[in-house]
Design a protein that fits this description.
Order of helices and strands: HHHHHHHHHHHHHHH
Number of strands: 0
Distance between the termini: 39 Å
Strand content: under 5%
Length: about 400
């Protein structure tokens, strides 16, 4: 089933459109916040914004399983979106009246809302389609992120020529309003999918609020995949931080070359999304998943040998093609779990993303500034090694699971 076929299902179309607009709004919010914070309070404020936005994800993902379970319904998510409408819409006035400390408190509220809605929404989406279409709907939701990362900054830049940076907060508030309306409608239109269902009698699924460690032990293949992606995403920060350094210090290029690289990466990620949904090997798990990470590592290491902007564009674009392959691969496996397990595993996934991101941003920039070539080479080699190790371990785990099933069938 193609993405167009999925979009003919009204609930899927409504949710996809609302999420696409919401993610665009988030890009505007991020740019407006970063720009305004830098203008009003300097670079330290920008750093505090990034840290405070991530803290709720770590705390709620680690300790807030019951809270996440309570909002795992479309109606509850509509209420969370309504809170964000008021908070984000008031940002231009809050900044003037309560200062930096108050605004940072608001950022914490927004981060908390995002930490609640992210795993809940990811866990609810698979119920909108038959089980055999979960991979396609996962890819459809993923392409919203790919398109908005590619088009969002440019759209925001155009808007900044027409309105003040603070007015972008109002754009984001409007997108939250669309999401709130969509969630409210979905809660009524698809009651069977409006909330995560309790597991049926005899199911191995845990009840809502399932603990993370027992779940991770019970799902070793997904756990291994999450560990690999955490390592890989940690070292992929070398690309986001290291490319500007490589362009300026090694290739003696300027902003135009950086814009070209970013555009190529955006196009590559959109192409990779289509690849992940339509090429058979890309859907194999865990083999295709591990292979994709190994190739991403090789491409990262190869940047250390690049001697022209063209070579850098080709390598970074090729690596971006594989980003959705790895993301959709692991998300599809999580989406195939029963509802409560699915919800908890998506929370773990969120924690993994933020731990890898924060850890890499704390440790890698200083290394990149001192030794960019070695950083690309070592980061790529470490990613390849982790992928090959995970491939071997997960293949062995899969063989043991098949062997146990055969033994049970004989008895």
């Amino acid at each position: 089933m193609s993405y167009l076929s999925l979009l003919r299902r009204r609930p899927v179309f409504v949710l996809w459109l609302a999420e696409t607009l919401s993610v665009f709004g988030d890009r505007f919010f991020t740019l407006a916040l970063a720009w305004t914070a830098w203008q009003r309070a300097g670079a330290v404020a920008m750093g505090l914004v990034v840290v405070l936005e991530s803290v709720p994800h770590l705390l709620i993902g680690s300790f807030g399983r019951h809270l996440v379970a309570k909002v795992a319904s479309f109606r509850a998510l509509a209420a969370v979106e309504t809170v964000q409408i008021a908070v984000v819409g008031a940002m231009p006035w809050l900044w003037q009246s309560i200062g930096l400390v108050g605004v940072l408190a608001v950022i914490t509220v927004i981060g908390t809302c995002d930490a609640l809605t992210g795993p809940s929404l990811s866990a609810l989406v698979p119920a909108l389609v038959p089980g055999e279409r979960v991979r396609q709907v996962t890819g459809l939701m993923d392409i919203s992120n790919r398109l908005t990362w590619f088009l969002g900054p440019g759209s925001a830049a155009v808007l900044l020529t027409l309105v003040a940076a603070e007015d972008l907060f109002l754009v984001d508030a409007a997108t939250f309003a669309v999401s709130a309306f969509a969630f409210t409608w979905l809660g009524r239109a698809v009651p069977h999918a409006a909330r995560l269902q309790e597991p049926v009698a005899g199911s191995s699924a845990k009840p809502p609020g399932v603990k993370a460690l027992p779940l991770l032990r019970a799902r070793p293949v997904i756990t291994g995949a999450l560990m690999l992606s955490a390592v890989g995403e940690f070292f992929q920060t070398v690309v986001s931080v290291g490319v500007p350094i490589w362009l300026t210090e090694r290739l003696h290029a300027g902003p135009a070359a950086y814009a070209l690289v970013l555009s190529a990466m955006g196009i590559g990620s959109v192409a990779g999304n289509l690849l992940a949904g339509h090429v058979e090997w890309a859907g194999r798990f865990p083999g295709g998943f591990c292979a994709a990470w190994a190739v991403r590592g090789l491409l990262l290491a190869a940047v250390a040998a690049s001697s022209s902007v063209t070579e850098l564009v080709v390598l970074t674009a090729a690596g971006s093609v594989l980003v959705p392959v790895t993301t959709i691969g692991v998300n599809t496996q999580i989406a195939s779990l029963d509802g409560p397990e699915r919800l908890r595993m998506f929370s773990v996934y969120s924690v993994k993303l933020h731990v890898a991101s924060m850890g890499s941003m704390l440790l890698l920039p200083a290394l990149l500034e001192r030794a960019p070539k070695a950083s690309f080479a070592v980061g790529g080699a470490a990613t390849v090694a982790a992928a090959l190790l995970a491939w071997g371990v997960l293949a062995a785990v899969g063989r043991r699971a098949v062997h146990r099933e055969l033994e049970l069938a004989r008895t």
